[in-house]
User: What shape does this take?
Amino acid sequence: MKGSRGDRLSSADRDPAGATPLLELRGLTVSVGHLPVVAGLNLKIARGEAVGIVGESGSGKSVTWLAVLGLLPGSLAVEGEALLEAENIIGASEQRLSQVRGGRVGLIFQDPISSLNPVQRVGAQVIEALRLHRGLRGYAARTEARRLFELVGIPDAERRLDRYPHELSGGQNQRVMIAMALAGEPELLVADEPTTALDVTIQAQILALIERLRREMNMSLVLISHDLSVVAEVCDRIVVMYAGQIMETGSTRSLFASPSHPYTKGLLGAAPVLAQKPQRLASIRGHVPEPWNMPPGCPFEPRCPYAMPACSAARPLLSNLAPDHQSACIRAGELPALARHGPT
Amino acid sequence: MTLLRLHKVKRTYSTRQGLFGETEQVSAVNGVSLSLERGRTVGLVGESGCGKSTTGRLALGIELPDSGDVTFDGTRLPHPNTKAWKALRRRMQLIFQDPLGALDRRLTIGAQIKEPLAIHKIGSPADHEGQVHRLLAAVGMRPDQAASYPHELSGGQRQRAILARALATSPDILVCDEPVSALDVSIQAQVVNLLLDLQKEFGLAMLFISHDLKLVGCLAHEVAVMYLGLIVEQGEPATLYNEPAHPYTKALLAAVPDSTRRGPRPLLSGEPPNPAARPTGCAFHPRCPIAVPKCSQVEPALLPRADGRLVACHLAHVESAAGEKVS
Assistant: This one.
């Protein structure tokens, strides 16, 4: 796949060595009982960078961000650090976290209808966020809410402020969610499957909107999706997660040009392309292992077509293939030769 | 060989805005014709509310059309819930999106696959156990999984179990309504491959309903694009995907996420339209980037083009007529 994206800066260009990342996860671990569902994650998000997180259900891609923002139930133990510049927000007080959520970090979820309050007008919900995070009240708050509605492309904004969520379409509710996330002027926007529940035409509109807002407001973006082609359109860098670990990370360009983990290759092969006649897809055999059923070495080993005995000996660590490309496969170097993923 | 034919079917629902509001007529399907053939798949695509699921239910006779007719093997579908309809139903099966909702949580997978065998009195009860194992094997499940309850299976396995149950009556027709939308890509690929294999093995005629053009392209021999209750373009995926003739097909294709895309794409503005407020003329004209005055006045007919596809667009018709004059 030759996705040359000359118009985009790679993360390396954006993040000169030594600059403090906006957010850094250090050894982030989430466990149920003694079973880790996220296992020692290290990740840096630079200012203005758009990072896509992909993986199947159960890969820990959503749990990671719920843990960072203190949104997990108490039955899950969170260890490690999430440094928002210098401040570790893991284990921070609920009061502090509620300032961060919707403040420096905006959130959008998959299902806007269940994230919005069904018995409160959508405008009032945005105004509430403006009061909490920017101290705006009265006329000033309503004016700002209307400006945000216009910014996210809600037609007839003044009147829509007084509607209830059930009176708006799914796409419009998602725009309301985005307006609400922008209310606190976030430096980082975390969007968890923001377009999965939407029609393909509306998905395209929402992705274009997120992309535009990110550029205009110089926000960092974490876009969580099961769909590699969605994150590839919006993100500079992609993180592929599996069983609570990072399997591969790299610039969007290099990850598509030379996928260097069998799981990434599997995801690329399984995704349907615009085919012109019935054709089989390259499926990945088996399924994601349960936390209590984790293989001893590489978690992908039981499903991997390139597995060797050494793969089950120890958990492989991420190693550098290029300055902007890392893989946690001990055969990463040989993979391009073993089978090159063809262009789609 | 045409197995099932929908001929100009229409279906209108009455809805009411609020408790005391006026009832209004919502035209879900507005005159759709389709043919399903043995061993072939028709893909039905469009945004939510375009009437694709209603078309699927009309095809199965779960709902009756207000006008037009549905014929199966040359005879008109009987009224729902009559004896004749029940007998026909074993030859036509529906699978849809939510595999957990479609299965009974209190029964084992084996018991649920056995159920249609008992209802339709297929084989002797003594044979049913063996038949369940054969069906599970056909969808790539182990015989011991017959004893599992739905919650013990993964999403992909549940969808397989539903397929096994649908196949129990040896149907001729399978209507799949977004059957893999809720699944991860790797599992989705397994189910797509399974559908292709089962079609080859049993010669199933399939109607595959989805909003995902990529997925439909992997399965369908023919694609029909629906907009507000009407088919606006229909033809082979190679023709439609390479050279869409209808502006709506073009817009749908442009919206498909593509990792190789460079720069911004043409976006379809506006929301999927409300079937209760159908625009005059061509229903797509308010969102159409190339609409001319005629489009808001005259409804375009679904006409064949030289390349064999059908398209309902005034401008595409003019274009094709001009092309034929030149050639």
